[in-house]
DNA sequence: TGAAGAAAGGAATCACATTCGGAGCAATCT
DNA sequence: AGATTGCTCCGAATGTGATTCCTTTCTTCA
């Protein structure tokens, strides 16, 4: 075995399931905003050397904390200025097949199964209201689609990927009694 | 003026407002899925040399088609397994102030003003249902918040950033009559 | 047909990612 | 207590890929 491999194995020990320390969370926070940072720059921001942050980022990837690195495209600038959320009521039917078919469309950005007075929630970004109409038509052509309600986005004040921070205060017990 | 600057200026001619050709759209499509690709690899996928794609990517950034490059964090793996959409009914009030305050919370991922039977739509990712409770409490403490309806996500089948593709067929006129 | 502008490719340069070896530090065992 | 083991850090060295420059080619327009 080449020396490099052996070292690699030794170094990768204990990659699994470890709580995030402050360094990790800061790194995640920075990368969630700008993944184009150099390791040197990132290191100086969190107070570590480039090799150290490199090691940590590698670990964060390996353990699934970082799922990937993507370029964020501007909807309007790339020809899809129209954004809408669509609530879908379904009756039985093979959801997974329907979802897989929908996922093929680049207009579909999110598909969630939700609790509440509706069943499924879609996030759709498309070229125009006409395109949304076409998409709804396709939806209704699928089996088990009972009804839809569309919420057309007029303006977007915030839109970003998951952030690293956690507001601890939100979990404090509410006003009067401390639950369990 | 140094030679490099002059060259840069010459090279940056015509950066503004040009329609995306097939190369651009393919590049955007690839980068929206994986921004970690090397220019050489990207070039071989679209059929251009590394310097050529580099030039185009630079242009796509400069013209705002690419807003940024980010690391995609896994919600559950980073301590926020709880996802919900919250519809908010507001009465008058200074929305922008409220929105700015909300944006401070890393739990808030999206804030849209929408048309439909509700006013504002929030995407919230937090640690627990208790945290959502805490967030709603903060919401109600703000002026002009009339009511909220929360849709708790049970499972997510698809979640991604804006894609480059456009399904032309969606814009075709519907069944019977050709509009306009 | 000729001239000019834009874009691509090849080669060279430069910056940064990545690796390596060693040192510091904490926890565990003797 | 002292030693050992394992982990993570850092500085220096290396390699790869980003970036630049220059030339060539293609297209467009006079």
From TrEMBL, chains A, B:
Biological process terms from the Gene Ontology for this record are: response to amino acid
Q: One Pfam family name from the record?
A: AsnC_trans_reg
- Which InterPro entries does this entry report, sorted A to Z? AsnC-type_HTH_dom, Dimeric_a/b-barrel, Tscrpt_reg_AsnC-like, Tscrpt_reg_AsnC/Lrp_C, Tscrpt_reg_HTH_AsnC-type_CS, WH-like_DNA-bd_sf, WH_DNA-bd_sf
**Keywords (A to Z) from UniProt:** DNA-binding, Transcription, Transcription regulation
Q: Membrane: present as a keyword of the record?
A: no
One GO CC term of this entry?
A: cytosol
Residues of the HTH asnC-type domain: 20-81
Q: Extract one GO molecular function annotation from the record.
A: sequence-specific DNA binding
**UniProt entry tagged with the keyword ATP-binding:** no
PANTHER family given for it? HTH-TYPE TRANSCRIPTIONAL REGULATOR LRPC, LEUCINE-RESPONSIVE REGULATORY PROTEIN
Protein name, per record: Lrp/AsnC family transcriptional regulator
Provide the organism lineage as a comma list: Bacteria, Pseudomonadati, Pseudomonadota, Gammaproteobacteria, Oceanospirillales
